[in-house]
Design goal:
The complex is a heterodimer of chains A (110) and B (114). By secondary structure, chain A is an all-beta fold. Chain A is 0% helix and 53% strand. In chain A, the strands form 3 sheets. In chain A, strands 2, 5, 6, 10, 11 and 12 form a 6-stranded mixed sheet that branches. In chain B, strands 2, 4, 5, 6, 9, 10 and 11 form a 7-stranded mixed sheet that branches. Chain B is globular and about 40 Å long. The chains are: A mainly beta (110), B mainly beta (114). At the A-B interface, strand 6, strand 10 and strand 11 of A face strand 5 and strand 10 of B.
Chain lengths: 110, 114
């Protein structure tokens, strides 16, 4: 069945470091792909999305490219800030079904 | 604009008891979702409503879980009877459009079954 696998955390980075959180998926057809973020004490919120192959989603300095050949949607940011500390979830949608990864906790230290 | 509201925020019950969660979506949002998030796992979609009709409930354990959205606005999710493995955060989300629309999540209800 459909599923999402993302790198396990926790991840700890120094401020201004480069971030990559890996996400790969298994799905038939052409799913839409998402990254959600959950800041401490808050609900999940959409960070970015891509709906077809080679699309690049971007928001708040974060980027992810829908790579169908490698079934991946890795999240990247060139220079992280302390305020980026959160849990990041990769997800896919196919039809009416949504599948989330297990989440990757990121802590950015000054 | 007010966000998705959920209550209660926390609930502790004993196994075999029943419990209900309430969700009020963002005004005007046609689609409402209930998710279960067990500690250390990602959210799992339980049921999805479009207005007051069920779009998908294939992942809902129907022997003990039920949900309704009678007037196409608020929704309740019920567990009866609860089991230890139902301990989780129950998330409600809503979207303006159908499944392709951006989902807005509430803060969740944290359930502990003892």
């Amino acid at each position: 069945g459909d599923s999402v696998t993302q790198m396990e955390g926790p991840v700890t980075l120094s401020e201004e470091a480069f971030l990559t959180i890996n996400c790969t998926y298994t799905a038939t057809g052409y799913p839409s792909l998402f990254w959600y973020v959950q800041y401490p004490g808050e609900g999940l919120q959409l960070l970015l999305k891509a709906t077809k192959a080679d699309d690049k989603g971007s928001n708040k300095g974060f980027e992810a490219t829908y790579r169908k050949e490698t079934t991946s949607f890795h999240l990247e940011k060139g220079s992280v800030q302390v305020s980026d500390s959160a849990v990041y979830f990769c997800a896919l949608r196919r039809g009416n079904q949504f599948y989330f990864g297990t989440g990757t906790s990121l802590t950015v230290i000054p | 604009e007010a966000g998705v509201a959920q209550s209660p925020r926390y609930k502790i019950i004993e196994k075999r008891q029943s419990v209900a969660f309430w969700c009020n979506p963002i005004s005007g949002h046609a689609t409402l979702y209930w998710y279960q998030q067990i500690l250390g796992q990602g959210p799992k979609l339980l049921i999805q409503f479009q207005n007051n009709g069920v779009v998908d409930d294939s992942q809902l354990p129907k022997d003990r879980f039920s949900a309704e959205r009678l007037k196409g606005v608020d929704s309740t999710l019920k567990i009866q009877p609860a089991k230890l493995e139902d301990s989780a955060v129950y998330l409600c989300a809503s979207s303006l459009e159908g499944p392709g629309g951006t989902q807005y999540f509430g803060p969740g209800t944290r359930l502990l079954v003892l």
